[in-house]
Specification:
The protein is built from 13 helices and nine strands. Helix 2 packs parallel to helix 6 and helix 6 packs across helix 9. The strands form three sheets. A four-stranded mixed β-sheet has the order 2-1-3-6. Strand 8, helix 12 and strand 9 form a beta-alpha-beta unit. By secondary structure, it is an alpha/beta fold. It has a domain of about 240 residues: Spore Coat Polysaccharide Biosynthesis Protein SpsA, Chain A (Alpha-Beta Complex), CATH 3.90.550.
């Protein structure tokens, strides 16, 4: 007759493969926490950025004094190498002297990514970064660091475009610049603040959705009533993680403390919690609903999405027809950027760069 210790050992050996198989599905991955030192460090950066925009009485802004043109700050949020750096290098085309003074580049790379600098316009454009994790407020913090750094770095930065390593431009830089800085007559808000009369009236391009079926599940992902009173359910919004903000809205984001206290809370239901898709559209729709377009200029295909990730285009799908299709939107604006492409799409995209992508 078998003794009890032997039976127990035999049972453990039988169940070990099952434990190894199902444990990753049962146990949630360790969540990256925002530590108090990191939070204090960020607040210091945000305060410096806000102070840099306050001018003493009687002073003349750099924009007014030099009559220089406003710039676009391109902010790359990544946890891998910038796979499409060659495409972006052609987009910026630093050889064109009339374009060099119209943009800045900033990169937030996860410290654990061991990312290699692609050189060119990306050289020395890395900002002090902290660890990020999908479906966590660390992505909000990273985006806010990019915004604050860009605000502090150059007072001529007037638009702030957040993109990922999987994004590509769908038009030439000249087209993108003209699209953003043309008068927004069709969607122009009825009334805007006249506090900065020297600045033209502009919109931020950020997706703002209020009638999605998953809205309630996302709202209570941290627990019922946790978001109250700062964020009632009827003010909670969903939107794209990637956007283009005006300088005024960038400042609203880095000044905010009230909503951030709610959105940095840990999620109880991680599967329904995407803080980076909630915080920015909720904050800006509450602060300035007439100043946001409510749609994004980055085309993302959610058909056939997997595990919360959008559809990923493969090399076989890259064609002139795909580029032209990705540009088409339901608004008066063409999509300016496309997402999401697999890294091995680089070569076929480079083949289309001169004659297709940057000709329109």
């Amino acid at each position: 007759m078998l003794n009890a210790p032997f039976v127990l050992l035999f049972a453990l050996l039988l169940t070990l493969p099952l434990v190894l198989l199902f444990a990753p599905r049962i146990l949630s991955p360790k969540r990256v926490a925002i530590t108090l030192p990191d939070e204090i460090d960020d607040l210091s950066l945000f305060r410096r950025a806000v102070r840099s925009t306050v001018q003493p009485p009687g002073s003349v802004s750099r924009l007014g004094a030099t009559n220089a043109k406003p710039k676009i700050a391109f902010m790359f949020l990544t946890n891998t190498d910038l796979h499409f750096a060659p495409i972006w290098e052609k987009f910026f085309d630093p050889a064109k002297s009339d374009q060099r003074s119209l943009y800045n580049v900033y990169i937030h790379a996860d410290p654990d990514s061991d990312m290699k600098s692609p050189g060119g316009v990306f050289e020395n454009r890395f900002i002090p970064a902290k660890k990020t994790q999908r479906s966590s407020p660390t992505l909000i913090s990273a985006a806010r660091r990019l915004l604050a750094t860009a605000v502090l770095d150059d007072p001529l930065n007037a638009y702030f475009a957040l993109v990922s390593q999987h994004c590509i431009p769908l038009h030439s830089f000249r087209y993108v610049y003209k699209s953003l800085f043309q008068p927004h007559t069709k969607s122009k808000p009825k009334s805007r603040s006249t506090r900065f009369p020297s600045q033209p009236s502009r919109l931020s391009f950020i997706e703002v959705l209020s009638e999605e079926p998953q809205l309630w599940d996302r709202y209570i992902a941290r627990g019922k009533n946790v978001m109250l009173p700062e964020v009632p359910f009827d003010k909670f919004r969903i939107g794209s993680q990637f956007y283009i903000l005006t300088r005024a809205h960038a400042l609203k984001v880095i000044k905010d403390r009230n909503l951030w206290r709610k959105f940095q809370l840990p999620c109880l239901n991680v599967d329904s919690c995407y803080p980076e898709e909630h915080y920015f559209p909720t904050l800006l729709s509450m602060e300035d609903p007439k100043g946001v377009s409510e749609y994004t200029l980055t085309n993302v295909n959610w058909t056939g999405s997997v595990d919360g990730h959008p559809y990923t285009y493969s090399p076989a799908e890259v064609s002139p027809e795909l580029i032209r299709t990705l540009r088409v939107s339901n608004s008066s604006f063409s999509y300016l950027f496309g997402r999401k492409f697999s890294p091995d799409c680089l070569l076929p995209l480079m083949d289309l760069a001169e004659n297709v992508i940057f000709r329109g």
